[in-house]
Design a protein that fits this description.
alpha+beta, five-stranded antiparallel sheet, 12 helices, 20 strands
Length: 551
Amino acid sequence: MDEDTTPHRPRGIRRLALGALSGLLSGYAALTTAELASAAVRPEAGPVIAVGGAAIDRTPPEVKDWAIRQFGTNDKLVLQLGILAVLASLAVALGMLATRRRPLAALGVLALGAVGALAATGRPDSTGVSDALPSIAGTAVGAALLYHLTGRLCRAVTERPPAAPADTASTGRNSDEAGGGGEDATGYEWDRRGFVLAATAAAVASTGAGLAGRALNDAQGQGAVASRNNVVLPAPASAAPPVPRGAALRIDGISPFTTPNDDFYRVDTALVVPRIDTTTWRLRIHGKGVEHEKTLSFEDLLNMRLIERDITLTCVSNEVGGPYVGNARWTGVRLADLLDQCGVRPPSRGGPADQLVARSVDGMTIGSPVEDVMDGRDAMLALGMNGRPLPFEHGFPVRMVVPGLYGYVSACKWIRDIELTTFDAYDAYWVKRDWAQRAPVKTQCRMDTPKPFARPKAGTVMVAGVAWAQHRGIDKVEVRVDDGPWEEARLAAEDTRDTWRQWSHPWQATKGSHTLTVRATDRTGETQTQKRTPTIPDGATGWHSVVVTVD
């Protein structure tokens, strides 16, 4: 007798696979429904964005700093993909659970919705309970769909087919009839046609809902785009002088003196870039020592005396030799003048407030020393960047710029509120996460060329890069080859002490492996320390080195 050697599936594997598919379809429906519902509230209320924001808020500083180092400006995309991967895994698990415990699985979906709703309403920028609506709507649809789809499979454990005729019973299986039910590996029937139709309809409807939600959310931002396109920056009353000849070296591989807007680094916590219409934007100035509170419109700022300055910004998450530093020409209102109009006095003149807390529309809070923003430096509320209105990614319509301070204590983007208070009374966002209250930019030097592990030819090799010590200025840059003596590099012309400074050094390279090291000295006479420290709590220190092999 011939033996059937065809391998059979393990008991119930088909039902579990179809349950997993049901879970994925239900999760997809929940997310796309939430996307559509968020168009009636605001994009930031969507569950992925809300949960992602909550995750950022609760991530330890060391992990957050690691993510920035590893993924750069793609850290937010990586986070969102990670959230989607976790949701997909949970959807698969709940789908398989639903093949045996449908009510329990549906409750699991609703629990996930509750997490999204709590995350949305618990964000600093939450507008109220309405932010919970996208998560609630999405999970209601997802739970109902999961219950329905797996109901087509649950017949497999509740309904047996009629007894097979005698001439077919010996085969151990029924033949499938077109348009009828099928029998899985366990011998139970399931509604194949109903399942396929429901799953297909759900996939099509979910895709439509997602596309409609995305289109509606994009349409809401068109007013902001139009308002930015209509902005005409007035000529500044105090224009920046032309960049001096010789400030921008013509050396392959060196960073351009002025960083193009598209290349300027972006480090923030916003998963959705705020798009703000200038016609509705307002800035409130209030708090301790404010004698005349003000609420200003964008038009009010445009009509004030504008200044234009070249200023280099640096992120505190910038490692030694890192990319998170850039130089731009900023146009805006001098912050000290605005505070003076409000009757604010710095602590050195008897003012009661020593901290200026700037609040963004996305809930970010940044605390700056009042003394620093009123000590004569060109701290400003910037409206323009490199001759154009601020890009949305860099804070349109208005952001703060304070030379000499790391961004986390000065560079509030999408600003909407300024409160005068004290450091004792209030800890801003990053201070609550173990970063220092005060953080002047540290003197640093970076080698742009040659790159690490480059293989230049023997002979003259140009070593070049940038150095910065905002509000102090760079006095000297030195280069060392291996353990040899320090040799002074040639400095490019200085624009201002608030900008970085390019430098170069012709190196007579000999064959073999070599370590190149650079260090800078600022105008106070302080040479950057060799000691390597991490970015937390107030910026990294150490010398930048690269290893090259000369052929």
